[in-house]
Design brief:
Chains A, B: It comes from Actinoplanes xinjiangensis. The structure is a homodimer of 453-residue chains. Chain A contains 16 helices and 23 strands. With 453 residues, chain A is of the alpha/beta class.
């Protein structure tokens, strides 16, 4: 790319995650002159990968599932093969005291009364979720009431057994990477509704964890960036957006500036709020970004010479009420070159262990895996982790969380453009909020919005 | 001040609000070479004033009251006279339907059952508040439980009457400038405890609104800045803090940099989170600033040729369940040059009216004042307002709000220094959090911390 100091383009996109890249991809296909400014030295945002022993291992978002049509379509367009998450054999469930039992199907064997309690609460949650307007959650029938309470309060009030509450809270941590106290009930319901249902969001088969991408989900971003070529600039953190009736000037850290008719800011809301806007953004938009904090995750990928658990009749899928890992799954690629277990430390656990030395985290994670899958699990070929809260250009995962009150007080500012400034990112999606598919949808929607005005 | 490009000082203070200025004042008095970098073209932070017809009118924080020892001491040191808020005569209370009744003393006449309900809830709140550890709210006896729920849920569960709930919710809006749904119960309790009690926080006589400063609270900041002279730099927004074992380099918008052994960041947490730190701040500190959003206030100051309500036997103090103003008070100075009514639009009301034209807000406010104090109130000499959420270098008032989960998950990061970076601002105070007095205390505490290490 030419390195003029005041390059002009039609549209600047801030952030080369899947939202920004999808947006630029669509715009570019329509003949729009687009430039993507990425702060990091890599593309992919909340997807990333490393190669271990010739095998690509995802360090960020990786699963896709039915209903995520845009993710499947993009994978097909880019020639990234899809394969099913391995689930053959017996799953494991670890209770509070560390007792491990096998199970098949969707439901672990963790005490009958707790499970019944959980199932009733789940049904009630699904019914409530169907009352949420995904386009405008603040307009849902009982919006004020649903948004006035945390998910923790709802769990305490709805479930009767301590075991059921622990189960529901663990599910919440898995889905949102936060404590149930941090989340508005309305947001939890919206999120489930945007994914179809809570069950879809939680499930492997038939749900959001059904499939994996051969070569990694990060390959989607890499291939999109390849197609965009020099329209993607790395290592250019956007620090200031000056805007008015005649367009925008986007200034990056080095002082270099880009002029455009419009800008699409495709980074998490909390990071969008850290850019300097001139003139300052309206109070409603700024107030929104003050409130949408990210979940806390440390993703732990453990690579073995082979998926040894399969030979023992185990699926590699495990749920644990004891932790620190609440869930583990097999994400080995079809190549058969090695075995990979994926797991994530979430919410309070991620915060606590995130402050400890890496060696301690590794040892805690491997110890739990050994208890679940046998002593062989304690000796991997590689242990790779990524604390997404420590990444300055992400600052948490999986997605932004709406605390109580935020949707009803600030929701309308989430997607509304401010003059020539448009907003994208998985948080602006009305379907699959927080997922890879939502990111792609949001980028495509922003591309349509900026070209239709 | 000399304008070297790489000026070196002992301590850089970010923000010339009362926290930053108090810090610099103490440091300077101890012979420490200090430089205060202020983004705006004025000092004072959340205090500010204008002069109308020779009279100083406060557009930000203005009241002080018993227990705020540092505020009184500073006013005395700086020669700013204190005078009692005018409360002689009859107060007014407007109910939901706009019916207005007079009252004397603390308690409005708004339906006996509602008041009884409110009084019982208040007593219960005070008892709970006494269980909170103000130094470390996350260590309070029932911290997890108190922090898992919004104040809205507690109000709904604790109060029995619709009238009582409305009354408590209105009190909450007055104190925290947000909807009760946005606030963690633990935070509300902590705040009250840090002020002594809920009753102290709410009261005029014997409480946080007891006294005013002749010449305005903003005069404290102006006089501190006068004493500091060229140690205060205006129009230098701090954009980057590079730090390490040998100190800090603070870079301002123009590119100018200042070296120091330590830096005290004395701005609201959400704004502190928008500075670029190199290396990036730990996840715990960043996660905190992602969560602490500011309350929403539009302060409306209405100036009349004289305090005409006094002649009618009215105190100028009014409470309203109907709104849009929830409370009005007399803040005329002892000079007798004019009459001033102070009022604030808060929370949802501020958000709604903040998006409307200024003329509409003016007319809505004056209409309500006319209903309360008679038609004369509709024709002021001046109407001056300040939307603190729209100010890029404040972004809300009165203070940062902890949503559910934030104190227990991120509380320890609020005051903990990160290497040579210290934090000040009213939000870091353990007494009078969110008040002028808390700001002064926090600045003085930071000054002690940076000199004792």
């Amino acid at each position: 790319m030419t390195n003029q100091r005041y390059r002009s383009v039609d549209v600047v996109v801030v952030g080369a995650g899947l939202a920004g890249l999808s947006c630029a991809h669509v715009l570019s296909g329509r003949g729009v002159d687009v430039l993507v400014c990425e702060a990091r030295d890599r593309v992919g945002g909340r997807t990333d990968s490393v190669v271990v022993d010739g095998e690509t291992v995802d360090l960020g978002g990786q699963f896709i599932g039915p209903g995520q049509d845009r993710a499947y379509a993009l994978a097909e367009e880019l020639g990234v093969p899809v394969f099913p998450t391995y689930t053959s054999g017996v799953h494991l469930a670890e209770d509070d005291s560390g007792r491990i039992r096998g199970f098949r199907g969707r439901v672990p064997r963790l005490g009958g009364l707790s499970l019944l309690d959980f199932a009733q609460a789940e049904a009630r949650f699904e019914r409530l979720a169907r009352t949420v307007d995904v386009e405008a959650p603040w307009r849902s029938r009982q919006a004020e009431w649903l948004d006035s309470q945390s998910l923790a309060v709802w769990i305490r009030r709805t479930l009767r057994t301590a075991g059921g509450r622990r189960l529901f809270s663990t599910a919440a941590r898995l889905l949102w990477a936060c404590e149930p106290s941090e989340l508005s009930l309305l947001h939890a319901l919206f999120y489930a509704r945007a994914a179809g249902s809570l069950r879809t969001a939680m499930a492997i088969e038939g749900g959001a964890q059904q499939d994996l991408l051969d070569g990694g989900a990060h390959a989607l971003a890499v291939r999109l960036a390849d197609r965009l070529g020099d329209r993607v600039r790395l290592r250019v953190p956007v620090r200031r957006i000056t805007y008015g009736g005649d367009g925008v000037v986007v200034a990056v850290e080095s002082g270099e500036t880009f002029r455009a008719a419009r800008v699409v800011v495709a980074v998490p809301p909390t990071l969008a709020g850290r850019i300097v806007y001139d003139p300052p953004l309206p109070a409603a938009r700024d107030g929104l970004t003050q409130r949408l904090a990210m979940g806390a995750t440390i993703k732990c990928m453990v690579v073995y010479p082979e998926p040894f658990w399969r030979a023992a009749g185990l699926s590699g899928y495990a749920l644990s009420l004891r932790g620190p890992l609440a869930a583990v799954a097999d994400s080995s690629s079809p190549s058969g070159r090695c075995g990979v277990l994926v797991s994530v430390l979430e919410g309070a656990t991620a915060r606590r262990l995130g402050g400890r030395p890496a060696a301690e985290r590794r040892s805690v994670v491997l110890e739990q895996l050994a208890q679940l899958f046998g002593p062989g699990a304690a000796h991997p070929a590689a242990y790779i982790e990524r604390d997404w809260s420590a990444e300055p250009y992400t600052r948490g995962a999986y997605a932004a969380l709406f605390p109580p009150g935020a949707w009803t007080q600030y929701g309308p500012a989430l997607r509304a453009p401010v003059g020539p400034i448009h907003w994208a990112g998985s948080e602006t999606a009305t379907r699959w909020y927080g997922y890879i598919d939502g990111a792609i949808r949001s980028g495509e929607a922003a591309a349509t919005a900026v070209t239709s005005m």
